[in-house]
Specification:
The protein is α+β, with helices and mostly antiparallel strands. The protein folds into two domains: 144 residues, Probable inorganic polyphosphate/atp-NAD kinase, domain 1 (Rossmann fold); 136 residues, Tumour Suppressor Smad4, CATH 2.60.200. 18% of the residues lie in helices and 35% in strands. β2, α2 and β3 form a beta-alpha-beta unit. α1 packs parallel to α4.
Length: 301
């Protein structure tokens, strides 16, 4: 029988989350599964509770491709961190929300024990989310950096007092050039994150598309765009830019962009896999997250 390695990712600085992680780990062990913790978290978790010291570590005791699933205790930020850890494997990510309502978390902490039992029983579905492949090319056209994003890739100004000059390209054709604070290129998953704050559209997860949203652009035509999922979006840092820019992916990975740099974003061949225990209408998530008023609704006809 193959070993069942389950990654457990928790916010080590929150006491209630550490206790929840110990409960999850105990339930996994009782069911015969092997709990695994991230190597980067081991010291902090062990400092919070010495029992974490005996748990196998990802990358040392267990390889990423040997994971069956990742259970994440936290909000969307922790889920994004876990998605980065399991990148390159088939392991889906199951988010258990420990704080505010998140769009990526599947269930709330009150349902945690039932969720672990369903993980053990393999009673869940896997939902694939569109991710972005991101490449940075220098002025000579050479690829100098590659990464990916689940939520968004942003090209931003590096200095607060200076804007950047960019030209936007869609599928190999230039669209417009202007000065701005930056550009957000978002997936449907990220449409309720930075894209939403920047005035971009909310995109239902079932819609495959890419949003392109300028940040404080100095131009008449600088509206949010929605392009097809197979479109290639490129943002070029024009030579007339006074200063440098920076690329951020999911707010976690960054790379400096000098003048002449070109960032190309397109659909990744590798989606992000989320474990789902039960279907939840995305409309309900929006209402809960943003506390939208729905009083007076008479029900579906």
């Amino acid at each position: 029988m193959n070993e069942r390695n389950i990654l457990v990712v928790a916010h080590a600085k929150r006491e209630e989350t550490v206790h929840a992680a110990l409960r999850v780990i105990g339930a996994l062990r009782e069911a015969g599964a092997i709990p695994v913790i991230p190597a980067a978290d081991r010291a902090e978790l062990t400092e919070a509770d010495e029992r974490f010291h005996t748990i196998p570590v990802l990358g040392e005791d267990v390889a990423t491709h040997d994971l069956e699933l990742a259970i994440v205790l936290g909000g969307d930020g922790t889920i994004l961190r876990a998605a980065e850890m399991v990148r390159g494997s088939d392991a889906p990510v199951l988010g258990i929300n420990m704080g505010h309502v998140g769009f990526l978390a599947e269930i709330d902490r009150d349902d945690m024990d039932a969720a672990v039992h369903r993980v053990i029983a393999r009673d869940y579905e896997v939902e694939e989310r569109l991710a972005l492949s991101v490449r940075v090319k220098d002025a000579a056209g050479a690829v100098v950096y590659e990464t990916w994003a689940l939520n968004e890739a942003t090209v931003e100004k590096a200095s607060r007092e200076r804007m950047i000059e960019v030209v936007v390209e869609i599928d190999g054709r230039p669209l417009s050039s202007f000065g701005c604070d930056g550009m957000v290129v978002s997936t449907p998953t990220g449409s309720t994150a930075y894209n939403f704050s920047a005035g971009g559209p909310v995109i239902w997860p079932t819609v495959e598309a890419i949003a392109v949203v300028p940040l404080s652009a100095h131009a008449l035509f600088a509206k949010p765009l929605v392009v097809g999922p197979e479109a290639a979006v490129a943002i070029e840092m024009l030579e007339r830019t006074d200063g440098t820019g920076i690329l951020w992916c999911d707010g976690r990975r960054s790379h400096e962009l000098p003048r002449g740099a070109r960032v190309v974003m397109r659909r990744s061949a590798e989606p992000v896999r989320l474990a789902r225990l039960h279907p939840t209408a995305f409309t309900n998530r929006l209402v809960r997250k943003f506390q939208l008023p729905v009083e007076g609704w008479r029900g579906a006809s």
